[in-house]
Design brief:
By secondary structure, the chain is α+β, with helices and mostly antiparallel strands. The protein has a domain of 204 residues. The protein has 10 helices and 11 strands. Strand 7 and strand 8 form a beta hairpin. Helix 7 runs antiparallel to helix 8. The radius of gyration is 27 Å and the shape is elongated. The relative contact order is 0.06. The N terminus is likely disordered.
Length: 354
Amino acid sequence: MPLKAYFFILFMGLSLLSVAQPRHIRLVDALSVENFAKHFNTDTVQLNQISISKTPAGVFVAYEKADTLNFKHEFYKSFDGPGYTKVGLAFYARKGNDYQLSFHNDNAFYCESCNNMRDYSASVSNDTVNIYISWGPNAFGQNEGYYFVYRPALKRWQLAEIHRSGVDDEGESSCEYMSYSKNTKVYLDNYYAESLPYDSTVISSQRISLSYKSGDYARLLRALKEIPKNSLFLLPKVFNESTAKYFMEAGLDEDQPDKINPIHGKNVLSANEIGYFLEQANQLDAAQVFLDKVIARFPEREVAYLNRGDVFFKKGQSSYKKAKKDYRTYVELMNKRGLQAKIPQRIVTFLNTQ
């Protein structure tokens, strides 16, 4: 190809990209995906979804964009079109029925076929925009969540949090949470989704991570104990009631519960200690998930009743009856074994005052 022809094609491609999104939209019909798409869609950009913002007023548009030629070109019909399709985000500020383009970021998501991106979305809650991306080569994949908060003084959405989770081919689950200070120079209008999690210049102010394999109680206990004490308040970001249930029940047949990750004599100590650890970390709902299962499997295990009683006690007065019941069972079992002297005085005091 002659050099002049090459530069002409390159120039035309860049020109198409620079004017792809409509700068101004006047919407006389009701605000909907269909009506907005009528004004937004061109040969090079196609609206995928919208999300309405109230702070400030406007509409976020997730779109697909041809990064070479346009969607009508034969290339996109006969060759690897998804590999040359970017997925971006635009924001249109609203004033009455007029929508003015404030920014567009062609790198807000992965390209359509990059990293096997399965799903993506942009949702708005008050002043926060959540960018969600699901990707990965295996059956479970990875999930990325980027949270940007609107800063009125800057008139921009600034990175505040990143949530990452996923499961690999070996069944290893990993979760990571990071939060960022107001000094972070990452903004919704120009960040690069594919490189952001690996950008060493973007430093979090708080971070917690946890890796485990469903059903491996001893490994989960070790991982929990490795979390720095000053980060335990972040534990619900990576392990909570729902993840606790998943840990114990992943892959279970509804007709045959507890056949995949059962609690038995070899792991009951670890399972009980996980419940105790979570109770001590004030993750009460997650703790109860483990302690309920321990008691169901080993109804004579007195310490599990003590631990679950503490969970109910910490939940407050509305749960005192449940705490009283567990503490009484604990005392009965301790008496049965002749271990009255080891019953904590606080338990005796509580039972005498309830």
